[in-house]
Design brief:
With about 375 residues, the chain is of the alpha/beta class. The chain has helices spanning about 5-15, 40-45, 55-65, 85-95, 110-120, 135-140, 145-160, 175-185, 215-230, 230-240, 245-250, 295-305, 325, 330-335, 345-369; strands spanning about 20-25, 70-75, 100-105, 125, 165-170, 190-195, 270, 275-280, 290. The protein has a domain at about 15-210: Alpha-Beta Barrel (TIM Barrel), CATH 3.20.20.70. The two termini are about 35 Å apart.
Length: about 375
Amino acid sequence: MLISDYLFQKASRRHIPLSVTLELSPVCNFQCKMCYVRKTEAQIRQEGKSLVPWEKWLELCKELRDAGTLFLLLTGGEPFLYPHFRELYTELHRMGFLIMINTNGTLIDEQTMTWLKEMSPYRINLTLYGGSRETYRRICGNAGGYDRAMFALRALKEAGIPTVVNASMIPENGDDLEAIMAVGRQLKLNTRVSTYMFPPVRRDAEESDSRLTPEESADMFLRKAIFALDMDRRLEFLQEQLCPLSPEEDASWGEHKEEFMRCRAGRCSFWVSWDGTMCACGLTPFPKTFDVFDGALMEHWKDLNEAVQKHTVLEKCAGCQLRNLCKPCVATVYAETGKTEGKAPYLCQLAQCSRDRIQAYLEEHNNEA
């Protein structure tokens, strides 16, 4: 067991907010078709809101440190665009937090690299949107973003700063899957590719919104496995995806209210959105939200922690033979349906298509063998 896994298990038992995500701003220099939160500065003003000053974030983090928080994830929007980002980061680093940053990488230039080397983050998660300038133009409206992201990846690797490559697949970058994964392989960086895309739960839907159909997503999942794994490990992995839950897991599914969320959300972690809203997960307001800057942080954390242990969810998923393949999540079901009980037709269809694609691939391999 990794030491971090041990810490999270212990924090869950003791109800300690070990990890907190701070969504500093919804503003970004990209206009990605699949983003769930992006806003312009003009939109923020039209809503009569403003960004939280960095001093208030800092005061909040002092409370978090006293509460036992160790890991901080700084995200956006694009966090490097947040005013006084360096001042805030510097103070948080000095306080001893292990800081992770979600970024598109385009603002990490040589000057920024010099600064990051002096106080390295625990990890940088850099999203790669495609394998070419043209793909970046289609998805982000910023063709030059590809070159800047690649510079950042190489510079971070050379500096020895822990970096993960993230990618989310949609129709506009579907042909780039192997190219994106090849970047991670070439630079020897952990690469996490998501073949499922959340609908835009934190903003109004737009005609330009884009994501794969369940059939396309299932095909992409298989392509990812084929590229990433050698034949023996690939076959083992795919066979594992078709295995049903064990009798013990199947028998306990949905029976115990204390097993509401099987992830860390609300148990040992929470999310603070750019307007100061505290919730278990940034992709769903369920079960409760609070104003994190109203002076009652730990009372809110206690209420949230209790709430996630008092509501059963995904009840309609009980008994489904594809649960192990689907791995249903409260956030995804809520994003798809606006409810937490399940089922979500898109997810059900995705699981069925994935099963069919995997079975066909394994049968073809067995016939060839």
